[in-house]
Specification:
The protein is of the alpha+beta class. It has helices spanning about 35-45, 45-60, 65-70, 75-80, 80-95, 130-140; strands at about 5-10, 15-20, 20-25, 30-35, 115, 130. Helix 1 (about 35-45) crosses helix 2 (about 45-60). The chain binds zinc ion (3 copies).
């Protein structure tokens, strides 16, 4: 058995640190060459922020990047924790293939649905597939709704071929 590597030298600050002090480098499936604190301070610098921005812009153009960007805005999460949680649960189930993606269904207007609407955010698995347009009509100012306590109710007709995932 070879000796287990338990420490690593940071390429920036040259300290020898435990492996847990290094972030995983997702692209190469190994540890980053700079320690966590060096990475963090780099992120706070101007060039660090720019690099991150560039990365996000590039990533934001991919399909998953777009979806993540739309949904996982920090502010949104803090402002509407209920809504965020409800969506995250559904997104995760769709991603894992546990429920079919919304475009498998038709919106009540007859268009292909591409979003899931939660008539009640406290019932996480109760969703209605809607097209973007109809969804916007239900809550037109999704971003501007200031009272997180106001839960928009689903007023539309039930889509005939829709699946409701009632708890
Ligand atoms: Zn370091
Ligand atoms: Zn909705
Ligand atoms: Zn529609």
């Amino acid at each position: 058995m070879p000796d287990q590597i338990i420490s690593k030298r940071c390429s920036k600050c040259k300290r020898i640190l435990r492996l847990s002090e290094f972030y995983k480098d997702s692209t190469k499936d190994r540890l980053s060459c700079q320690c966590k604190s060096c990475k963090q301070s780099y992120r706070r610098t101007k060039s660090g922020r720019q690099a991150r921005c560039r990365y996000q812009r590039k990533y934001g153009k991919t399909k998953t990047g777009k979806a993540i960007h739309r949904r996982a805005i920090c502010k949104y999460r803090l402002r509407y924790p209920e809504r965020y949680k409800a969506r995250a649960i559904i997104d995760d189930l769709v991603r894992r293939g546990r429920i079919r993606p919304p475009n498998n269904f038709k919106c009540h207007c007859g268009q292909e649905a591409n979003e899931y609407h939660h008539p009640d955010y406290s019932r996480h698995l109760y969703v209605v597939p809607l097209c973007q347009h109809c969804h916007k009509e239900i809550h037109p100012k999704l971003r501007d709704v200031c009272e997180p306590t106001v839960i928009p109710r689903f007023e539309g007709r039930a889509p005939n071929n829709a699946t409701f995932f009632a708890i």
